[in-house]
Amino acid sequence: xxxxxxxxxxxxxxxxxxxxxxxxxxxxxxxxxxxxxxxxxxxxxxxxxxxxxxxxxxxxxxxxxxxxxxxxxxxxxxxxxxxxxxxxxxxxxxxxxxxxxxxxxxxxxxxxxxxxxxxxxxxxxxxxxxxxxxxxxxxxxxxxxxxxxxxxxxxxxxxxxxxxxxxxxxxxxxxxxxxxxxxxxxxxxxxxxxxxxxxxxxxxxxxxxxxxxxxxxxxxxxxxxxxxxxxxxxxxxxxxxxxxxxxxxxxxxxxxxxxxxxxxxxxxxxxxxxxxxxxxxxxxxxxxxxxxxxxxxxxxxxxxxxxxxx
Length: 310
Ligand code: UDP
Ligand code: MG
Description:
Glycosyltransferase family 2 protein; 10 helices; binds magnesium ion; Glycosyltransferase_2; membrane; alpha/beta; 51% helix; Nucleotide-diphossugar_trans; 2 domains; Glyco_trans_2-like
């Protein structure tokens, strides 16, 4: 069986279109298909839309509904936990992940010695230029400083074997960054490329700043480089100050001590003070993550599933 996991947040317009498109494609697939929709605390009629779909196709469409918005990562996790298929795929509800690729992905995973078929966008057309620029910077940075490789343009849309899904579910951390988790668990992954699509309906729920802080989360969750940066900077400024002290000492001995240099002194104070705050901030970020992690809160809370609706 093939399970399709779809996190949905305010997708009442997209879901019917999505379902029809995928149903068409699933004619070409010889597996049984199971849909696992996760309603991530939508504020529109997404939930009643899912209830209706389940009524129409009780054996095919399942859904979970969260008690509030927990974020896409929580939705993915819940969906993967609920999925029962031997093959599991993760898709967005807005058809930005082309379902036409599914038959090809299934064939690849069944004929070749791979555990996962991922997809990546070759272009970012239709996206604001500044967003693409920062996305590229992010991938350059994270691949340089992190130990986990992340593929530029890779989407969450991927087809995985049961074994890989079970491995992903073993990572029970609270701060989830799927792009990192998918690559951290390893296994053989092959990427298919396609051109960027615009969403069919509705609006993206990611603003520039929410993406920015998401990428910061990614860096903090998968790299200790910022912490090392703090200690390098500290060591560097120590060495620098010793050299400066020696220079000042010998200059005073040889040329006397005309009092001067207050402006430069103030600049140095401000600079060092700023560096200390920056490093404290970096450490604080990690402590915040540890704090959330040690509370061991559930990643999501379910308010309703298809079983409550028979
Ligand atoms: N999504 C979600 N919870 C959220 C935000 C988004 O489940 O808090 C879902 C959304 O419904 C969609 C997918 O995640 O199916 C991708 O979101 P979106 O299309 O807004 O992101 P983009 O494609 O613009 O990166
Ligand atoms: Mg989208």
